[in-house]
Design brief:
Blueprint: E1 2-4, H1 7-17, E2 22-27, H2 33-45, E3 48-53, H3 73-82, E4 87-89, H4 93-96, H5 115-118, H6 122-137, E5 141-145, H7 149-161, E6 167-171, H8 191-197, H9 199-212, H10 217-231, E7 235-243, E8 257-265, E9 268-276
Parallel strand pairs: 1-4, 2-3, 2-5, 3-4, 5-6
Antiparallel strand pairs: 7-8, 8-9
Bound molecules: pantoate.
Pantoate (PAF) is lined by residues 26-28, 56, 59, 126, 129-130, 144, 148, 151.
Length: 279
């Protein structure tokens, strides 16, 4: 695997890979099996695979964990190399946001609710950096985890609206043996909190099954929130049944659906989601 930092090095490395199909896996590092699944899927789809590691300051709110976000460049590089990644780009912040940088990519509608409401400005930061990475690397396909389901929807909309010549692919969530969705932020959980956190996927499964059996959606969601509180979650930002494409809330089953949730255990905010089969 070739590792590059500057734009010049990136351009040379991309020139060497030109002519083959290229897949891009953008990341913020602190890699886990979920990221490695993205690399594996990218390898299925393309002759060459590039990854980026960039902890994007624009997508963190003032009170969020930018300063503490886990950074493990050497280990990440080893993991990517072992997974068969061909090129790793580690841009510096000034490469992505040079002095005088004044453009924000903002996706209206789909980015406004849920995470958008709980984390104002977050999706502007995500859409802006992903647009920059896609323009810089010009991959044929870019892969993102379904764990961040709304992020995936926002990126799809952004790529379509800007006419970016790239296929956006979502890859299924990887979970630990207890069902907890893998996330770089799980590193913040204590052993006790990790035990409590599995109530999140368990509750989503319970709600999915209830809805599948015809239970009232509003009552099911209220009971599901209650279950999370009982399990030790301190704050539930949302737990909703939504249309899987528009992310608009549903109060009765219709079309392709997703259960989405964000809740805080201790000081750690977790998100998760689950497909709900059509009726
Ligand atoms: O999902 C992430 O790791 C980040 O939001 C992304 C897509 C790499 C943009 O910084």
């Amino acid at each position: 695997m070739q590792t590059v930092r500057s734009r010049e090095q990136l351009a040379q490395a991309l020139a060497r890979l030109s002519g083959t199909g290229l897949a891009l896996v953008p990341t913020m590092g602190a890699l886990h099996a979920g990221h490695l699944k993205l690399i594996a899927e990218a390898k299925q789809r393309s002759a060459a695979v590039a990854a980026t590691i960039f902890v994007n300051p624009l997508q963190f709110g003032a009170s969020e964990d930018l300063g503490h976000y886990p950074r493990q460049e050497a280990e990440d590089s080893r993991l990517l190399n072992a997974a068969g990644c061909d090129l790793l780009w580690l841009p510096a912040a000034e490469d992505i946001y040079p002095d005088g940088f004044a453009t924000t990519v903002s996706v209206a509608g789909i980015a406004d609710r849920w995470e958008g409401e709980a984390r104002p400005g977050h999706f502007d930061g995500v859409a802006t950096v992903v647009a920059k990475l896609l323009v810089a690397v010009q991959p044929d396909v870019a892969l993102f985890g379904e764990k961040d389901f709304q992020q995936l929807a926002v990126i799809r909309q952004m790529a379509t609206d800007l006419g970016l010549p790239v296929e956006i692919v979502g890859v299924g969530t990887v979970r630990d043996k207890n069902g907890l969705a893998l996330s770089s932020r799980n590193a913040y959980l204590s052993a006790v909190e990790r035990g409590q956190a599995i109530a999140l996927p368990q509750t989503l499964i319970w709600a999915r099954d209830q809805i599948g059996q015809g239970a009232d959606v509003r009552i099911t969601l209220a009971e599901a929130k209650h279950k999370l509180v009982e399990a030790g979650f301190l704050k539930i930002d949302y737990l909703a049944l939504v249309d899987a494409v528009t992310l608009e809330p549903l109060d009765r089953p219709s079309g392709t659906m997703r259960l989405i949730a964000a809740a805080t255990i201790g000081a750690t905010r977790l998100i998760d989601n689950l497909a709900v089969p059509a009726h």
